[in-house]
């Protein structure tokens, strides 16, 4: 008897759920018609919020959050929500996440994808569906050559960062023997190739290691660098391996200066290497220091996120603001939003923004900065001269 | 192929290879001991190692050492090393005990099929690794410089540093001690008996469950010390490094002959050397490919590994 009762109750509960599902679907389809109204619009952040490269994504997400928070305070009657899409920096997860974004008709624009690898996997979906996305950090040059209609980036690409890193090694460090290491990723290898082109014959050796947390022992590489007598090392890759390599180089008595790209430009690099080993490391970035952003950005960021802004926090903030400006101007469909970004020209806290035909940031706006690790902190060193 | 890089620095690659191999060997012991007694691949052993590695860092932190501290003076170095090793060994042995109690013993009592053990092992491994990942916010954790990596002496033009000597020396010492323990002591005899035939051993008055627990504790303690040595050598720990290192150590155990203690040592050192030579010859991106091709070829000719399977068997 009791069992029967339980079944009955269960049956009723399932029926209720099914009914609820039907009504939920109905209200969902209703949002499609309502998409003409900007209220309830959404902006997504696409990047690593967990996983080995999470620290970079969290920085950017903080910038986007701040932009939306400010917008919502100024437009209390018409709120925009942030949808975090956590890719873990993994290209394999990117297509499914892209689909998730496309399925939500309220998402009018995306800040991201943050990394080059995941961009290659996700961007074709966005291009086909016409959903605009502005990456604050994917710097692989070939991304702009894929014919994607919806691709924009608010930073310079590796072609601007790589040669600048090379020029810094040649002109500022005046190193005659340079060892180049990369992690075989689209980003790291691309950057290393650009550096090699600038340095030419002063590259005394090069090595490819395994990235994505797959290698933690670099003793063979360390031995090679040591016997090459290099006075500068360029590493193309991300902070986790860079920290390990720097620590193991120093432990083996190699004092050569490590120069690396923006993928290493993060406080976690110093945590990994230890402040003593990390001291003096040069990090390039096609971005000006987040802490030098204009206006009250730094204080506002700290107030909302409870920590200093990091690499690309300011650019992500600007990218989100471009999208928000579009919503504010009444561009409440994905097509109109795309047109708005194409024609956009304006000032942000990090730089001025205007995009080329292929979605690149206008070359005259790109600034490449060198940063230096001093006393356990990444501090701005100098803007690298254009040539 | 870069023969020049390999031969101009052959001694250097040999020593760093042996250092890597010594850590593989210590972790491989856990796989081999458990396999020898239970015919079970304890895939969660990689997380037993990680537990020890984190415990050592947090233990040192409790004594006021952070990632930027440098310990000096022979006395305090030895003290911190002993403290670190002890904390790591206890933490790892504890983790291994919990895994055995929670994931394996209940299954054994119910005569579960081998596949069930495999799945609980992988499940325990992922659960523990993720727990560490969440707790450390998936960020790398820096270890203090307990032992400064000064060059101690030179052999054949290759510099040998304190850390390298420490890692290889302590691995060898522990290996010899364990070998003696298994072959000479009363508990060791029990382990060998259970490895040969659990039921007969039980009939002879050996407490099977206690022997199995002892095996997990010994394997765990070894992995814990390996974890501390890893901290000292690599200097930075991320929650996810256990998986690949565990896989390598398991490979080393198979290479030497799983179930065979001396095989684990031989397999570990050999794998470390092959990896390092391959890195020198072909570049670091080739090292896993070469190492595993060597494994496959060796197993073709010696299917039971270099020294063959035996914990109790061969000498019984």
Automatic annotation (TrEMBL), chain A:
Show which residues constitute the signal peptide: 1-24
The UniProt entry, under CDD domains, shows: PBP1_ABC_LIVBP-like
Instruction: Alphabetically list the UniProt keywords.
Output: Amino-acid transport, Signal, Transport
Family annotation (SUPFAM superfamilies): Periplasmic binding protein-like I
**In what residue span(s) does the Leucine-binding protein domain sit?**
42-358
One biological process term from GO is:
amino acid transport
A Pfam match is Peripla_BP_6
Q: Which PANTHER family match?
A: AMINO ACID BINDING PROTEIN, LEU/ILE/VAL-BINDING ABC TRANSPORTER SUBUNIT
What family is it from?
Answer: Belongs to the leucine-binding protein family.
Name this polypeptide is given: Branched-chain amino acid ABC transporter substrate-binding protein
Q: What is the lineage of its organism?
A: Bacteria, Bacillati, Actinomycetota, Actinomycetes, Micromonosporales
From TrEMBL, chain B:
InterPro entries, sorted? ABC_transp_permease, BCAA_transport_permease
Q: Which GO terms describe its molecular function?
A: L-isoleucine transmembrane transporter activity; L-leucine transmembrane transporter activity; L-phenylalanine transmembrane transporter activity; L-valine transmembrane transporter activity
One annotated Gene Ontology cellular component of this protein: plasma membrane
Keyword match Oxidoreductase: no
Q: Transmembrane region positions?
A: 12-36, 48-65, 77-103, 115-135, 155-182, 211-230, 236-256, 263-283, 289-308
Annotated GO biological process: D-alanine transmembrane transport; L-alanine transport; L-isoleucine import across plasma membrane
Q: How does it sit in the membrane?
A: Multi-pass membrane protein
Spell out the subcellular localization from the entry. Cell membrane
The protein's predominant localisation is membrane
Q: Could you list this entry's UniProt keywords, alphabetically sorted.
A: Amino-acid transport, Cell inner membrane, Cell membrane, Membrane, Transmembrane, Transmembrane helix, Transport
Q: Sorted alphabetically, which Pfam families does this protein's record hold?
A: BPD_transp_2
Q: Which family does it belong to?
A: Belongs to the binding-protein-dependent transport system permease family. LivHM subfamily.
> This protein is called what?
Branched-chain amino acid ABC transporter permease
Protein species of origin: Micromonospora zingiberis
Lineage, opening ranks: Bacteria, Bacillati, Actinomycetota, Actinomycetes, Micromonosporales
């Amino acid at each position: 008897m009791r069992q029967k009762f339980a079944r009955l109750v269960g049956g009723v509960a399932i029926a209720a759920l099914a009914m609820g599902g039907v009504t939920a679907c109905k209200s969902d389809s209703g949002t499609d018609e309502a998409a003409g109204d900007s209220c309830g619009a959404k902006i997504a952040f696409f990047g690593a919020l967990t996983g080995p490269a999470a620290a970079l994504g969290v920085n950017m997400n903080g910038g986007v959050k701040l932009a939306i928070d400010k917008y919502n305070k100024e437009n209390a009657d018409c709120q925009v929500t942030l949808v975090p899409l956590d890719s873990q920096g993994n290209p394999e997860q990117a297509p499914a996440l892209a689909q998730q974004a496309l399925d939500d008709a309220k998402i009018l624009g995306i800040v991201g994808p943050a990394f080059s690898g995941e961009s290659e996997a996700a961007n074709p979906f966005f291009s086909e569906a016409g959903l605009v996305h502005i990456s604050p950090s994917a710097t692989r040059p070939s991304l702009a050559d894929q014919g994607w209609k919806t691709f924009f980036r608010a930073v310079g690409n590796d072609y601007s960062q790589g040669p600048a890193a090379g020029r810094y090694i040649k002109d500022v460090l005046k190193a005659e023997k340079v060892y180049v290491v990369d992690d075989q990723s689209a980003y790291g290898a691309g950057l290393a190739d650009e550096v090699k082109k600038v340095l030419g014959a002063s590259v005394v050796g090069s090595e490819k290691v395994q990235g994505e947390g797959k290698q933690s022992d670099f003793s063979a590489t360390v031995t090679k660098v040591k016997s090459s007598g290099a006075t500068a090392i360029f590493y193309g890759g991300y902070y986790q391996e860079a920290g390990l390599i720097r620590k193991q180089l120093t432990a083996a008595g190699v004092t050569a200066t490590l120069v690396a790209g923006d993928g290493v430009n993060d406080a976690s690099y110093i945590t990994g290497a230890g402040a003593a080993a990390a001291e003096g490391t040069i990090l390039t970035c096609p971005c000006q220091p987040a802490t030098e952003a204009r206006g009250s950005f730094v204080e506002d960021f700290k107030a909302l996120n409870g920590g200093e802004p990091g690499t690309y926090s300011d650019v992500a903030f600007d990218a989100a603001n471009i999208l928000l400006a579009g919503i504010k101007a009444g561009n409440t469909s994905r097509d109109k939003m795309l047109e708005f970004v194409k024609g956009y020209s304006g000032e942000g806290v990090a730089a001025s923004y205007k995009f080329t035909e292929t979605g690149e940031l206008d070359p005259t706006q790109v600034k490449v900065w060198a940063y230096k690790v001093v006393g356990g902190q990444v501090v701005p060193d100098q803007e690298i001269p254009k040539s | 192929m870069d023969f020049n890089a390999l031969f101009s620095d052959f001694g250097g690659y040999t020593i760093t290879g042996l250092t890597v191999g010594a850590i593989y060997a210590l972790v491989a012991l856990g796989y081999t001991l458990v396999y020898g007694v239970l015919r079970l691949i304890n895939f969660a052993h990689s997380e037993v190692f990680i537990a020890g590695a984190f415990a050592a860092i947090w233990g040192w932190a409790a004594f006021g050492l952070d990632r930027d501290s440098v310990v000096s003076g022979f006395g305090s170095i030895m003290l911190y090393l002993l403290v670190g090793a002890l904390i790591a060994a206890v933490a790892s042995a504890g983790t291994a005990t919990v895994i055995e109690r929670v994931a394996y013993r209940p299954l054994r009592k119910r005569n579960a099929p081998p596949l069930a053990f495999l799945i609980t092992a992988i499940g325990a491994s992922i659960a523990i690794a993720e727990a560490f990942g969440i707790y450390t916010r998936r960020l790398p954790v820096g270890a203090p410089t307990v032992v400064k990596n000064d060059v101690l002496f030179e052999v054949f033009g290759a510099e040998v540093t304190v850390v390298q000597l420490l890692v290889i020396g302590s691995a060898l010492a522990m290996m010899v001690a364990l070998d003696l323990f298994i072959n000479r002591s009363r508990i060791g005899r029990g382990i060998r008996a259970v490895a040969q035939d659990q039921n007969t051993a039980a009939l002879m008055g050996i407490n099977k469950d206690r022997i199995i627990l002892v095996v997990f504790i010994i394997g765990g303690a070894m992995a814990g010390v390996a974890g501390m040595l890893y901290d000292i050598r690599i200097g930075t720990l991320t929650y996810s490094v256990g998986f690949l290192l565990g896989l390598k150590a398991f490979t080393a155990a198979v290479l030497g002959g799983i179930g065979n203690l001396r095989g684990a040592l031989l397999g570990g050192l050999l794998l470390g050397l092959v990896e390092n030579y391959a890195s020198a010859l072909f570049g670091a991106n080739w090292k896993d490919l070469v190492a595993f091709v060597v494994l496959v070829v060796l197993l073709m000719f010696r299917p039971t590994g270099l020294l063959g399977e035996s914990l109790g068997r061969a000498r019984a």
